Each structure stands twice: as C-alpha cells, then as structure tokens.
Amino acid sequence: MSPLLIGAIIGALFAIGLLIIVFSSPPARPVKLEDRIAPYLREAPKPSALLAGTPASLPGAARRILLPRARSLSKVIDRWVGGSGSVRRRLRALDSAQTIEDFRLEQTVWASLGLVAGAVAGVAMTFVSPKFELVSVVLFAIGGAIGGLFGRDWWLSRQVRSREERILAEFPVVADLLALSVTAGEGPAGAIDRVSRLVGGELGQSLQGALAKVRTGMPLTEALEEFAKFSSLEPLTRFIDGIVIALERGTPLADVLRAQAVDVRENGKRRLLESGGRKELAMMVPVVFLLLPTTVIFALFPGLFAIVELSQ
Question: Does the keyword field hold Transmembrane helix (predicted)?
C-alpha cells in the first residue's frame, strides 16, 4: 500500500470523526419537543431516596454530545445482537444500577475503541509488510469492532461470576449467623438486618437492598422472592425458598434455618472437594509433561552416552 493511500485513509477517518462531532454537538442537533417544554415542567419531589433516579454514568458535557448518536447505535446493536433478557438478568445478578440502554452504550464505546484499535493495527501492518492491502485494514477494523462488542458482554459475565464466587464464600457464615439470631429470639427482618450489617460484603449488601424494599411497604416474603429470582446460585435460592415457605406456612423458623445452615456447610465441603479434585488434575500436568520426561532423560542419558562411545 502506497504512503499516499495511507495518508488518504487517515485523512478520511479524521474527517468522518470531525463531522460526527460537529453534527452531534447541541447547536447542530434539532431540538425535540420534550427538550422545548422541559424547562417549563417541574418534577415532583421524590417521596423517598430509594425512588431517586439512576445517576448518569457519563459526565454532563460528554453525555449531551455523545448520547444521541450512541443511543441510535445502541438500538442498532440491540437489534443485531439481541439477548436483552440475558443482559437484564446479569445486570440484576450483579446488583448494578445500570439499565440495558447504559449497557448498550458501553458496548458501543467498546466497539468504537475496537474499531479504532483494529484500524491502527491494520495501518501499522502496512508499514511492516508492503503487500498488506486495504481490504486487510478494513477486516482488521471490523474484527476489532466485533471483538469490542462481544468483549463488553464477556466482561459482564465475568463480573457476575466473580460476584457469585464472593457470595458463595460469604454464604455459610451468613446462614449460621441467621440461624443463631433467630434461635436467640430475633425476628426474621431484624435478624436479616443485624447479620447483613455485621457481615457486609456482596451478600450483606443484597440483603440490605431487600430490606430497603420491605421498609417501603413490600412484604418480607415478596422481597426475598424477588431477591432470589434474579440469582443463579442454586444453594442461595434454595435457602431463600426455605425461609419464605417457613414464613408463609408458620413453620418454626429457627428449626428451618438450623437445617438450612447444615445443608449450606455440607454444600461448601462438597464444593471444596470438587475444587480440590480439579486442582489435583491441573497439578498433574507439569508432573507428566515436565518432571517425568526430565527424569526419563536423566535416567537414559548415561546409557545412551556409553553406547555412542562404544560405537565410536
């Protein structure tokens, strides 16, 4: 690829980016009807801080400039990629204040960064290999955009898995403390409040969120069911279901919680044994493919050396 063509590509990309910035700026955008009447409408004060709106994830100036175009791109991405239900479930499992629109905006940003990185890598390859064609630069850019698009989805799944691992690590302690608190005479809501404030962590914060809904008027059983509905952890879901059934049927909650705590500890032991088994197999890899061949070489080398000396 000639230097003239490379310069033309860089100039065209710069011009396209500059035009997008200019036409996305507030003075160049048509004013919508909702923006015209917004200054004349006053929003009623929120009755509770729990009902406050989600804070904007972008700074004010950047949000005003980038949000309209990014929202259009995010709608296109949502139509192409789909999976809004899965994204909503994972965001709820992450206990994130983000909406699907915010996540699609982040996917758009990641795809844009991947597009730029792929284009830069493709242009750099033209300097390394003169046979590198323009089509390859375009393919690099498209591959970077696709990688950024699905990379954000992969990162969300990884965040959810990391949070679930932390919850599972905290779960046995929370179950034991809840059983102890209820056995000592504490009520269900009071026991959950005390334990969640004492333990903290991811599970404690999630329980505090469920109690916040209870304080706004939601029944405790409904708040716990909603908390368990968006969790993919089977032990936690089973534990919450046991509490809800005991509260609805009038079963002695202390006995149920003690039995549930025993099940949680047994489940923790089983997961530890499974993890140890997987680690044992992983530990065999360097032994079989590194230490064992080295031992065989050291054992056979003197004999092979003697045979070579005798043959000479």
Answer: yes
Q: Which residues contact 74 (CB under 8 A, 6 or more apart)?
A: 101, 104, 105, 107, 108
Q: Output the CA–CA distances (angstroms, integers) from residue 147 to 44, 63, 82, 114, 309, in the order listed.
A: 44, 24, 16, 7, 58
Query: Is residue 268 within 8 Å of residue 172, measured between CB atoms?
Result: yes
Number of CB atoms found within 10 A of residue 173's CB: 17
Half-sphere exposure of 306 (CA within 13 A, CB side): 4
pLDDT for 72 equals 65
Sign (positive/negative) of CA torsion 84, 158, 115, 60?
A: positive
Threshold 0.70, pTM exceeds: no
Handedness of CA 77, 78, 83, 89 (dihedral sign): positive
Q: Tokens for 195?
A: 């334990």
In a 3-state reduction of DSSP, which class is residue 80? helix
CA distance 88 to 98: 9
Task: State the Cα–Cα distance between residues 73 and 110, nearest whole angstrom.
Answer: 12
Instruction: Categorise residue 250: left if φ over 0, alpha if ψ from -120 to 50, beta otherwise.
Output: left
Determine the pLDDT at residue 273.
81
Closest CA to 151 of 120, 121, 108: 108
Which two structure tokens, joined as six digits, stand for 232? 């993919």
What lies within 8 Å, CB to CB, of 177 at 6+ separation is 195, 198, 199
Amino acid at the residue 67 = L
Closest CA to 227 of 239, 217, 103, 216: 239
Exposed e or buried b per residue across 201-213, where buried means at least 16 C-beta atoms within 10 angstroms of its C-beta:
bbbbebbeebbeb
Residues lower than pLDDT 50 in the chain: 49-58
Please check whether residue 81 is in contact with residue 147, taking contact to mean a CB–CB distance below 8 angstroms: no
